[in-house]
Amino acid sequence: MIVRRAAAVLAAITVIGGATAPAALATGPSPSSSPALPSGLYGTGDPTYDGVWRQSLAFLAQHSVGVKPAAKAVDWLTRQQCADGAFAPYRANPAAACDAKTPVDTNGTAAAVQALAALGGQDAVTAKAVTWLKSVQNADGGWGYTAGGASDANSTSVAVGALAAVGEKPAEVRSEDGHSPYDALLKLSVPCDRDGGGAFAYQPDKKGALAANADATAAAVVGALGRGLAGSASKQAGAAGCKTADSPERAAQNGAAYLIESLAKDHHLTSALPGADPQPDYGNTADAVVALATAGRGDKAADAMGWLKSHSARWAEQSGPAAYAQLILAATATQSDPRDFGGQDLVAKLSATGPEPDSGKAAASSSPAASEQKEKSDGGVFGVWWFVAVCLVAGIGVGFLLSGRARKQQ
């Protein structure tokens, strides 16, 4: 994203924007009809900014529940890769060679690595992608959204997940200046004696100050523990509370403590579009659940899981595959049943947004109900991406819309 999860913007605009979106959303240009999308792609919304991202999350979620995606879906993702190993968010014509204008990014590339490594059989693709990621590592050890961009917590964390997915040791992947990804993350950990102590910042502000960012914190907790987007349920938690972040593990536990405190009152996180009141942030809440489970604090995520089960159905239906994937990953990380998630079968709903899976208990995607879900997935928001593009160009970042999801400071 200048964003880790551009797909989540759909949630901000459809759920938050239902009554309170900026006037620009209502008056901006909107295509009269949607162009035909590849049959192997998950979702029906404009994939310009999130095609690879949502496809990768869908694969990770399906893998976590034993569902094998269709071969044509996997083929669509691998064909999005450029010759140098990087992935663009969406290449309408993958037969055309990438050039200097192709908008490749670290987030989609790292997510694709994680997804394809989980599925297996794609070593050549993932090796090229990891080689590219290493080639654009910043001097401080981290990564920005684009090659050469300033390091941020989210991009660095998703890159760590990619390295770990292919068997690399992130601590040993060092820049020419000798810094590892963990060095970059530690620099973004807010000291305990500061406002928001224990959290991670997305990036330092122009004066070098660190501002707590819940989304960056959820990402960095997982990254600092050397895990990927799917997280990993753990029963080993460090000492509670915020203590000096003298190691990646300690910084992760500090971040977990911050998330626990942030979830304590309402059991969910919030975000706001410019000029609008804060609204529930479903995706960020799901990511926080994954982070807490990975940090061995899954018991502290129980209330947030209960809230998601009761409140996330409409958001997920409107937002599409990435949203269903986030909820599935939260469920599996906390050993909940994603096939009975507040009365929903998340696995069936995710599978219905794409081609019928090759194997696994995934629900009948050829059923009338599944076909209706495919039509609804990402529906009604095709014309909002012009606004996303404006945010990116202006440097606001999509993340600003979702508690830092692109991610300038809140």
TrEMBL record:
Q: Where is this region: Disordered?
A: 349-375
Q: Where are the transmembrane segments?
A: 383-402
Lineage top rank: taxon = Bacteria
Question: Hey, what's the signal peptide range on this chain?
Answer: 1-26
Residue ranges annotated as compositionally biased, kind Low complexity, are 360-371
Q: GO molecular function terms here?
A: metal ion binding
Is Transmembrane helix set as a keyword in this record? yes
Xref: InterPro entries:
Prenyltrans, Terpenoid_cyclase/PrenylTrfase
- Could you list this entry's UniProt keywords, alphabetically sorted: Membrane, Repeat, Signal, Transmembrane, Transmembrane helix
What are the Prenyltransferase alpha-alpha toroid domain coordinates in residue numbering?
Answer: 69-168
Matching Pfam families? Prenyltrans (PF00432)
Please state what the protein is called. Prenyltransferase alpha-alpha toroid domain-containing protein
